């Protein structure tokens, strides 16, 4: 009888203990995901497409008309489509590489597989610096919008600080699944603002920066004669417009079903390219060399204020995402393999807030130190956009396919191997040439007496 009582007591003790929550998912990166912690695998394919679009659409599009002004309409469209094709392939490789190597979270993990510790640290550092610069560009764009809406209501340095604080607070949301709704808001706001600006430049008599007396016709050029520096700088801006590529690693890592990644990618890139061509062609056709940069300033003071007012949520969302990516990368590197990664512990929160705050402060310093939009965009695209969007993806395809294809080579394998090597070489050329061109332009701009100096209070919404 005592044995039966002991057995009943043991069963009662077991049944009275709280059961551990069943795992939502077992992930190669995040470990066991439960309801007690953040769900890092909660983004559907529609949300993935929105995040992909917002990672690229919002900052880069504002420089496209200026690129067409440098290159001419026809070379501009050709170069844009070429960059779109190359980087769409790069993004596709990310999806296949992630499926082949589920433990990969960011480009640094891919670098370690291919090149060991050196590859990991080089690509990890390059990716973080890249996102910091992009976030700086986002803060700068937001300050331009605030200046436009408020008619330069206060010092520009104050607007950059306000943008940094607002972006930090929103970027501190821990999972992309909870941020994805902001991507839709941002996409709609920027798209509507661009459509308003396009309609306005089509019906206005002349751009606000053009001579306001006498007859005026747009001086757009089908093909433009330009120097190497101007040409490579313009192409670098196109690279920046598409170089959300390193952000696609963490996006696919948080998808519920990574097999739908390619569907989201094609939807994203198709829409993006169509909008870029439309915005660039229409605005440059009507404004010619008097097109403003960022592009929303091309339609006059009133429309500029309206367009920037509508687009401000989109500019902030772009900054939120590009602050979130490097913060999450550093956060995961610190806590990966520990229980704190998927819990709500003090260590978890302190590490996460520390990462987002550090990245935001660094981005604020960049935005304040290089306050000229065109120069910052081209420098980011050349020096860092190519480094994290071209060369690693060519190497990733070769890593997965070189050995097995070399044993029994096919025509398809030879062509794709040659293409991968070409992408690596092209990325290296654009990185070196574009960085040189961007630095030359930054030095020239810093010597000009335009008031665009570091930590300046001057109105930055009137550049052209």
Structure description:
By secondary structure, this protein is mainly α. It has a single domain, classed as Hydantoin permease. Helix content is 72%, strand content 1%. It is built from 15 helices and two strands. A two-stranded antiparallel ribbon has the order 1-2. Strand 1 and strand 2 form a beta hairpin. It is globular. The termini are far apart. About 3% of the residues have low confidence.
Give a brief outline of the structure.
InterPro entries: AA_transpt_TM. The chain has 464 residues and is an all-alpha fold. The protein has helices spanning 2-16, 45-56, 64-71, 73-100, 107-150, 156-171, 176-203, 228-242, 245-253, 261-287, 301-335, 346-369, 373-389, 391-407, 411-447; strands spanning 25-27, 31-33.
């Amino acid at each position: 009888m005592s044995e039966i009582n002991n057995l009943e007591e043991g069963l009662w003790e077991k049944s009275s203990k709280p059961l551990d929550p069943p795992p939502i998912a077992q992930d190669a990166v995040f470990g066991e995901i439960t309801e007690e912690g953040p769900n890092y695998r909660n983004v559907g394919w529609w949300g993935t497409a929105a995040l992909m679009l917002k990672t690229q659409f919002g900052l880069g599009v504002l420089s496209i008309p200026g690129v067409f002004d440098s290159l001419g309409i026809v070379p501009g469209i050709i170069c844009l489509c070429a960059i779109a094709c190359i980087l769409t392939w790069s993004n596709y490789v990310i999806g296949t590489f992630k499926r082949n190597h589920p433990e990969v979270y960011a480009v640094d993990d891919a670098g370690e597989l291919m090149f060991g510790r050196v590859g990991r640290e080089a690509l990890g550092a390059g990716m973080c610096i890249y996102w910091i610069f992009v976030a700086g560009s986002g803060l700068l764009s937001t300050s331009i919008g605030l200046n436009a809406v408020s008619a330069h209501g206060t010092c520009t340095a104050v607007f950059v600080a306000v943008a940094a604080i607002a972006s930090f607070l929103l970027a501190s949301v821990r999972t992309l699944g909870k941020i994805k709704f902001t991507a839709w808001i941002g996409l709609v706001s920027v798209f509507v603002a661009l459509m308003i600006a396009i309609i306005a430049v089509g019906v206005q008599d002349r751009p606000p920066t053009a001579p306001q007396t006498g007859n005026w016709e747009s001086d757009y050029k089908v093909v433009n004669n330009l120097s190497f520096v101007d040409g490579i700088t313009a192409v670098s801006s196109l690279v920046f417009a598409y170089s959300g590529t390193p952000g696609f690693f963490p996006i696919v890592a948080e998808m519920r079903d990574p097999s739908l990644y390619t569907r989201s990618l094609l939807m994203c890139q198709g829409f993006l390219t169509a909008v870029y061509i439309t915005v660039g062609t229409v605005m440059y056709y009507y404004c010619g060399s008097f097109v403003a940069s960022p592009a929303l300033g091309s339609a006059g003071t009133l429309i500029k204020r309206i367009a920037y007012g509508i687009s401000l949520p989109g500019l902030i969302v772009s900054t939120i995402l590009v602050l979130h990516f490097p913060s999450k990368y550093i956060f995961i590197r610190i806590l990966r393999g520990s229980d704190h990664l998927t819990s709500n512990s003090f260590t978890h929160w302190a590490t996460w807030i520390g990462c987002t705050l550090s990245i935001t402060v660094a981005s604020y310093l960049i935005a304040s130190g290089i306050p000229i939009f065109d120069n910052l965009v081209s420098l980011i695209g050349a020096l860092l956009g190519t480094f994290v969007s071209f060369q690693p993806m060519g190497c990733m395809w070769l890593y997965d396919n070189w050995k097995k294809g070399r044993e029994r080579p096919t025509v398809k394998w030879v062509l794709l191997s040659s293409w991968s090597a070409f992408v690596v070489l092209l990325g290296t050329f654009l990185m070196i040439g574009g960085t040189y061109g961007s630095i030359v332009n930054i030095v020239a701009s810093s010597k000009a007496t335009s008031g665009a100096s570091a930590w300046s209070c001057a109105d930055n919404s009137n550049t052209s």
